[in-house]
Amino acid sequence: MNFTPIQKRVLLILLLQNASYTLLRRYSIGVRHDTYNYHECLFLAELFKLLLSLKKIHADEEYENKGVTFQKYIQGIVLESQKMMILAWIYALMNVLSFVSLARIDASTFTIVAQLKVLSTGFFSYLILSKQFNKVKIVALFNLVCGAILVTTPSISNDGDAENDKSGGGKFIGVCAVALEVMLSGFASIYFEKVIKGAGLKSGQPLLGIFERNVQLALHSLPFYFVMIMFSSNAFSGWNLYGIMLAVLGGGGGILVALSVKYADSILKTLATSGSIVLSTLLGYLWLDGPLTFVMIIGVGLVLAAIWLYTFDPTPVPQPAPAEKKANEVEAVPLIPSNKESNV
Predict the structure, then answer these.
(1) In the chain, how long is the greatest CA-to-CA distance?
(2) Nearest-angstrom CA–CA distance, 326 and 108
(3) I need a surface site. Which of 107, 153, 303, 343 has the fewest CB within 10 A?
(4) What pTM was estimated for this model as a whole?
(5) Membrane-spanning regions, if any (predicted)?
């Protein structure tokens, strides 16, 4: 697999961002025991992403090519935000499912099932985008899941296992909830990739850029997080510099995810985030006295081997039969005609 320079940069920065976010959160919550509300952190991350995207759109001045003001252009973006509204509500449902599952199963079980997001992403990539996988890449994805489970599970504290020792029915509901979250995560990743890349656009539909889509997603996500804050017990307390840094990293990560699926794809994005698990585990061991057991070392090896297998496998991927273009599908029409591309 040959990577373009922009793919290398985006995926590397995404890997570093994910590792930095994990380490900072582990230090802030696990070592310092900071008590700021996590939903407030997510709210601020979306707000930061919104402001950064608006600033980038304004700086590019592409809206002037259409002969409209910045305000009118943003209004047009909001009116075309139905697709991102669907994605925002999927994310909201995933948050609810996380709460339901963690209230009924222990953290180790949750973490193990959650690693299956890699496979669900591959499944929906095949189902929705008709992406083909050869045997080597399929083996690599399964190895990636196994490696991620081995790396993450030993670092999960079992202090809450007794509290989560619910009835069999409660555990079944918890496992079903996290399994549904896994499926939604895979679907959301591929849905987002399809929207970002403009697949399936029909006549008259605007082709929006990454920052426009992030504005839409943030506008629909902010109300959900605000409602969650209102129902929290420790709202608007315990904030410090580390919480603000987490919010900034989280907001930047949202833009990096969009860039990674735009210039690469959701599977490569998953490889980058899995690589960040390895990096954060090793750095956590060196800097934060985190665990590094023999089992975790095996997991690190599996993850690295899986990334290598998937990205450098020379075996040709089977190509699907060429499909005829549907009569009602035409080339996407850009929202703003432009002779230049935005620099990333």
Answers:
(1) 63
(2) 47
(3) 343
(4) 0.85
(5) 84-103, 109-129, 136-152, 172-193, 239-259, 271-288, 294-312
